[in-house]
Amino acid sequence: MSVRLESTSNIWITGASSGIGEAVARALVEQGHNLIVTGRRQEALDNLKALAPDRITPARADTTGKEELQGIAGSLEAHGDLNMAILNAGTCEYLDIADYDSDVISNNITTNVVGTARCLDIALPALRRTVAKGQPATLVIVSSSAWWFPFGRAEGYGASKAALTYFAHSLRADLAQEGIDVVVVSPGFVKTPLTDRNDFPMPFLVSAEDAAGRIVKGLRKGSNEIAFPKRFTWMLKALGALPQGLIDRIAASMSRQSRKEQETNG
Ligand SMILES: NC(=O)c1ccc[n+]([C@@H]2O[C@H](COP(=O)([O-])OP(=O)(O)OC[C@H]3O[C@@H](n4cnc5c(N)ncnc54)[C@H](OP(=O)(O)O)[C@@H]3O)[C@@H](O)[C@H]2O)c1
User: Is 3.40.50.720 the CATH number for 10-265?
Assistant: First the structure.
C-alpha cells in the first residue's frame, strides 16, 4: 500500500510554467499539496502562485544551469521537508535529415538529460534529509514513450529520452537501498505548447489535464512506471518487440511517408 501523496506533501515540480507540468501542478495544488514551481518564465510561475499564494513558491531557474539551480536550493529547504521532486522540464526538437545539424541533438540532450541530472544536485540532498526523518521521498522523472520505436526526425529527442530513462532506472537501483523511490513517466502524445508545433498526425492525443490526472493517479497508487495512453504504449511495445529487420522496414516506410506529406504540405 502506497503512502505517496496520502498526506499533505511538499513537492518540487520543474517545467511547471506550461503543458503537462502546469496541469500536474494545478491537480496537486487542488488536492492540498504545497508546491515549489520551476521554469524560466517568471510570469507563468506567478500566475500559478495566484492559485494558492500560501502553498505555492515560484523558484525561477534554467534547469541546465548548475549555478542557477544552486540559487533556488534554499527555496526547497525553506518550504519544509521535500517529499517529492517531479523533474518534468523538457524540450523536443526534430531533425531535418536533409539539413543535418548536430545542435538539434545537443539541445535535446542538454535540456532533457543534463538539465534533469543537474536538478538532482539540489533534489537529492533534500530528499535524503526527508528520508533521514523517517518520511517517504520520491523522485519522478518525466521521460517519453517516443524512444520505444525509432521514429524518423526524432534522433535527438528519442536519444535524449532513452538516455533519461536509463538514467532513471539506474538511479532506481542505486537509491533503493536509501528508500528513495524513482518513478518513470512515459507519456504518449499530449496536447501542449510543445506538441502544438508538430506538423504530423498525433495518434491517441490526450489533453494536458487528462495526462496530469493519469500521472497523479499513478503516483497515488504507488506505481513506479506510469505510461499512457495504454492503446498507444501497447502498440509501441508490440512494434518494438518485432525483429530489428522488420522494425527498420516499418520505420523507413513511415519516414518516407512523412517526408512526402511534408513536401506536399510545404
Ligand atoms: N507533450 C507530449 O506529447 C509529451 C510526450 C511525452 C513526454 N513529454 C515530456 O513532458 C515534459 C513536458 O512537456 P510539455 O509537453 O508539457 O511541454 P511544454 O508545454 O513545452 O513545457 C515544457 C516545460 O519545460 C520547461 N523548460 C524547458 N526547458 C527548460 C529549461 N532549460 N529550464 C527550465 N525549464 C525549462 C518550460 O518552462 P519555460 O519555458 O518557462 O522555461 C515548460 O514549463 C517534457 O519533458 C516532454 O519531453 C511530452
Answer: yes
